[in-house]
UniProtKB/TrEMBL annotation:
It is a multi-pass membrane protein. It comes from the Bacteria. The chain crosses the membrane at residues 37-57, 63-82. Its main location: membrane. InterPro entries: RDD (IPR010432). Keywords: Membrane, Transmembrane, Transmembrane helix. It comes from Patulibacter brassicae. It holds the Pfam family RDD. PANTHER family: SLR0254 PROTEIN. This is RDD family protein.
Amino acid sequence: MDDYQDRVTITTPEGLEVALVLAGPATRIVAALLDTLVKLVAATFVVSIAVGIGYGILGDAGATIAVAVGAFAFLFLWDPWLEQVTDGRPPGKAMLGLRVVRDDGGRVDLASSLVRNLLRIVEYPLLYLPGIAMLLAHPRHQRIGDLAAGTYVVRERRPVAVAAERAPVAPPDAGPVPALDLVALDAHDRATVRRFAAQAGTLAEAERARLATLIAGPLRRRVGGVPPGTADEELVLAVAHRLG
């Protein structure tokens, strides 16, 4: 599936239209397998400790019940907790450059994480087959949990090491940046960049940074000559300056 088919355009509360690049089914399945492996390792460690302590304090019957309840809670609460502490990038997804976001492009919150992960209860007994079928059939590659929670799994750029002496990107008032190749940008990209630059001075710092990250992701795929380590907002404003 090509880039165009894997994109969804959202409108932010600030009125900006931003294209998110959706993760494909194969990438999501591999990321899920990696995250499941991490969960199994963590569960084995936690259950081993719980068994050792529980049987010594509660006895056989009490410890068995406690371990069963704890294992169930761990199974369904681990993923929401991990999505919160990693800002939607649990280890498997982070390794493949993926992130869970709300369908408005915002950070996945606790309520959304709980809904999308607790619905795995209908997938676990069937070896994830309903989830895999949904990923393959749905045009936006969403599981049942994603549809219920209003979430997407999107592609993010991989972090790039900052060079010791990186080439600076000029701020928007310091003249053009000739190294940037904008030929691949479409009309939507250009309009979004210009609108962000026009509104940037009116936005709160956190909101400006969030929007810059959303816009910069697709730009990095289509703008040539971006120096390593260029910050998201630097890139968006430099492109806006080039566009005039």
